[in-house]
Amino acid sequence: MRTIAVYSLKGGVGKTTLAVNLALCAAAAARRTLLWDLDAQSAASFLLGVTAAGAKEAKAVFAKDIDARKLVQPTAFPRLDLLPADASLRGLDRFLFGLDKRKRLAKLTEQLGHDYDRIILDAPPGLTETSEQVLRAADLVIVPLIPSPLSRRAFDEVAAFLARHAIRRSPILPVFNMVDRRRNMHRQALEENPGWPAVPMASAIEAMSAWPGEIALPPSSTPAGAALAALWRGIEKRLARLDRAD
């Protein structure tokens, strides 16, 4: 099992839609996949049409008052399950700070890993106790960025945070998201960082929120679908290198 975190310093970069699409890619590639929604806004849960069974159980998993496996729910997609978010996650940062167990999430993902090949964490934005737990638990950190002159600065901030706090060995993969090549700033950012994967803006992805529970990957014949498929292949190659290193 490998754990992939989708993390951003700020919202509005398509973090959750990217996390959901990567989970769909993993499941489509015959990986037993769990998407863990750790964002109190519950956007990933909404997109997949799954509602948490209780109002305060998501945080209780970290207190070990409830087995995380009991909260996992199937989705409409073969091989894809979801551990949904609920409002209790709004208090998770304070709880984790008081708990002082920096690897609590890593331990929980290890336990869940007996049932899955890939666990994808939709992390809350910002530099928080929860995001630090996410970064410690991940084997690979995906950082979505909007193409702009500030993209490199935002990515460097994440890398500096990991280095400053000595958070694991996790490789970081920046991904340009919601790319519009008609915009000068977007083209400039792409030219300055030619090695970064890029997922173009697509109406099918934008419309995901209008069809909760009925979403689908963009067809591979479309630019967005082809970009997501290529991104997932690149992720799998990176994970394979980790497997060989272990």
Secondary structure elements and their pairing?
Blueprint (H helix, E strand, L loop, with lengths): L1 E5 L8 H14 L4 E5 L5 H5 L9 H7 L4 H4 L1 E2 L5 E4 L8 H8 L4 H9 L5 E5 L6 H9 L2 E6 L5 H14 L7 E8 L4 H9 L5 E3 L2 H4 L16 H23 L1
Parallel strand pairs: 1-5, 1-6, 2-4, 2-5, 6-7, 7-8
Antiparallel strand pairs: 3-4
Helix pairs in contact: 6-7
Descriptive overview:
The chain is α/β, with parallel strands linked by helices and 246 residues long. The chain has a single domain, classed as P-loop containing nucleotide triphosphate hydrolases (Rossmann fold, 3-Layer(aba) Sandwich). It is built from 11 helices and 8 strands. An 8-stranded mixed beta sheet has the order 3-4-2-5-1-6-7-8, with helices on both faces. Helix 6 crosses helix 7. The mean pLDDT is 90.
Strand line-up across the major sheet: 3-4-2-5-1-6-7-8
| Derived structural class | alpha/beta
Report the β-strand fraction as a percent range: 15-25%
CATH level-four homologous superfamily name: P-loop containing nucleotide triphosphate hydrolases
Estimate the helix proportion, in percent.
40-55%
Q: Return the CATH class.
A: Alpha Beta
Mean pLDDT: 90
CATH topology: Rossmann fold
Described by the principal axes of the CA atoms, the overall outline is globular
Our measurement of the CA-to-CA distance between the termini, rounded to an integer number of angstroms, reads 13 Å
